[in-house]
TrEMBL record, chains A, B:
Catalytic activity: L-homoserine + NADP(+) = L-aspartate 4-semialdehyde + NADPH + H(+); L-homoserine + NAD(+) = L-aspartate 4-semialdehyde + NADH + H(+)
Pfam families xref list: ACT, Homoserine_dh, NAD_binding_3
Domain annotation ACT: ranges: 364-439
Keywords: Amino-acid biosynthesis, Methionine biosynthesis, NADP, Oxidoreductase, Sodium, Threonine biosynthesis
Protein name per UniProt: Homoserine dehydrogenase
Any GO BP: methionine biosynthetic process
Organism: Corynebacterium uterequi
Annotated binding of NADP(+), by residue: 20-27
Record-listed L-homoserine binding positions: 200
Amino acid sequence: MSTSFNPGKGEGQPVGVAVLGMGTVGTDVIRLMQENADAFEARIGGPLALKGVAVSDLDKPRPGVDPALLTDDAHALVERDDVDIVVEVIGGIDYPRELVLKALKAGKSVVTANKALVAAHADELAAAADEQNVDLYFEAAVAAAIPVVGMLRRSLAGDQINRIFGIVNGTTNFILDAMATTGASYEDALAEATRLGYAEADPTADVEGHDAASKAAILASLGFHSRVKFNDVHCEGITQISADDITAAAKAGYTIKLLAICERLTNEDGSEQVSARVHPTLIPSSHPLASVSKSFNAIYVDAEAAGSLMFYGNGAGGAPTASAVLGDLVGAARNKVHGGRAPGENTYANLPVADFGDVPTRYHIDMQVKDRVGVLADLATRFADAGISLRTVRQEEVERHEHARLILVTHQAPESALAGMVERLSELDDVQQVTSVIRLDG
Amino acid sequence: MSTSFNPGKGEGQPVGVAVLGMGTVGTDVIRLMQENADAFEARIGGPLALKGVAVSDLDKPRPGVDPALLTDDAHALVERDDVDIVVEVIGGIDYPRELVLKALKAGKSVVTANKALVAAHADELAAAADEQNVDLYFEAAVAAAIPVVGMLRRSLAGDQINRIFGIVNGTTNFILDAMATTGASYEDALAEATRLGYAEADPTADVEGHDAASKAAILASLGFHSRVKFNDVHCEGITQISADDITAAAKAGYTIKLLAICERLTNEDGSEQVSARVHPTLIPSSHPLASVSKSFNAIYVDAEAAGSLMFYGNGAGGAPTASAVLGDLVGAARNKVHGGRAPGENTYANLPVADFGDVPTRYHIDMQVKDRVGVLADLATRFADAGISLRTVRQEEVERHEHARLILVTHQAPESALAGMVERLSELDDVQQVTSVIRLDG
């Protein structure tokens, strides 16, 4: 970080704001900026002045915005002299990356809600912000108004974070919750989520876990003071989860949630690695995360001194996301008026990202096996030989007695050992079908 | 706020720290400062240098601290040239007030965990900090490492907060939880809390609600950008709660918790007031706050755009409190190195504190009445005449039929109307005893 600093424009000076994008979030940001103008001026020490709004379609009606402020030349807008802060709520990666870099290099502070951009290019963006001594804020990129970014960046700056895990995608939680509550299939629950506006027309980014993976990358980077990018996150979505999986889980006292799990791992030699992953996870139905319903988000942070902290709220939607953007905007504007700068990205610990195969996980394996004497003993021996200990074994009667149902829950073992074991199991004559394999946590 | 600013000492420069007080929290702060020295230096941009520790008894052994650093002259320590930041973890009000004011006036930033001091004298302290352009941090004053102060001050700076409520005192929650779980009396549960270290030798500040009231004052001040002091908070403790109250509540589907409730109230003419209160409160047992067990804290914040947010964690204890102090210390030190200043107190909205009598509340009234025809109709008429509507009425058989038990739950009405009604009830011939009156929320 440079040691020169921004002395500030001085008390009472207006702070020029450019907004890029006028979708749901952008519209709410502009509306709330206008509605709360007096309060924001008092909190900042000077008024926010909206200088321009970049949109792709100039002909679309934009109620509540002076048409003179609209422009389709975002590149020119972000470099304008009267703009101090650029708010990026476009979405996508390449186009906003160009604009945000250009803004930072022109000495503008940037507030973005764009998790994909931050998870892919934080290095480059942080370097540009450092270079110019400007702010780069992105609270809205993770769990909307739940202030987990600020908490990791500042409140827990005096602690060591060991684990961050939770529900960070509202769409998939809505779908899994609907499946659990109504018994609906994945397809029907997704259709309902789309109808109600919880899922986008193309739900890929949500249901395949990509959105959650971007958030996991951001949380792991901040929490472990290291660089974890989107591509470093092991990611599995919920498209393979069936109504049967959910019913079977409930019967066994579990709930299936799509969790983001970020961990600090200690190697045998005492060195450390980090890991970030997103996958459907069985958690005990008594765990607080199991009761997180609809599109809500909840995030646990385990820290050395603070212990376990939990944050819960509405993790998506125009207004909650706008709340996070505006909190960042007030912060960035305060610095433009009074001088100084918020703590930037700091990846000093520079911990390597562990191979997913080395990460300790636990499996819940549901399978059909031949109903012959000695099957269980034989399988148990195979697990023991692979160094995997079993936590619970349940054998269930099956109606026509042609086979038995076996449900195994393992203790922690390296992911690769567990995955290899499942592969070998499915090749055994005694094993008729591995019905489902879901990781377990909590 | 002054428009001059602190330009910072520059990257790599050491930041001198004085710690006042070496009780549980002070000891953990010093230990963790030493254990995490490298991490903190990387996060701050310069090393923290412990310059002195003020203690009242120089002869007491202080393992882990260089004896040369100990002093019993706190007044001299806070003004020393090599001290940049003063950490106050003494407790009490008058003595730490003198020291903190002296430190601020000498240009030192201050980090305090002292809720009583902040709730009583925030005005004066904030003015001194503004005057010198230094930081005054107090995250640890409310709910230890649960970062609710930072969240109100920064993350939600772009939103309007309407209500803050929750469990902010671990000792009383431990006692109420023990009473509910084991059926213990208040006295026995208090004794157990003392034995286990959850209650202090003199538990007055906790069980009378004073500690929670200080926290409510701080939360209301930050949340509503107004000045709410300890004396503005209506405060009732838990000493009158009996095992019977708790059993009766459980039977009716309620749990009794000591809640701090801070509200923005809108008058009929559209003007606004604020209110902060602490009292035993019945909440539905299905409400997440009802499951907050042992000494844990949980705080809900309802904001206009963000919706309802919840924060949960360990709200007391040496290490969690030290985590909050150290987070503040890293923040204050970063500003000493890089320049600038955290957002100070800002009470621009300056909303008046409502008379407690005008605050809308709801009552749960448990009473014994004569078992005669028409009693219920007569009482219901009296409530209606007072403008109080009843939400539920339950009449229960009593064993020997000499009287009936009547349990009334009201809708919201001004506190003074409800309190007046209860007073009049207890004077009626038909009412043999008003067994308990507890407010209801959630």
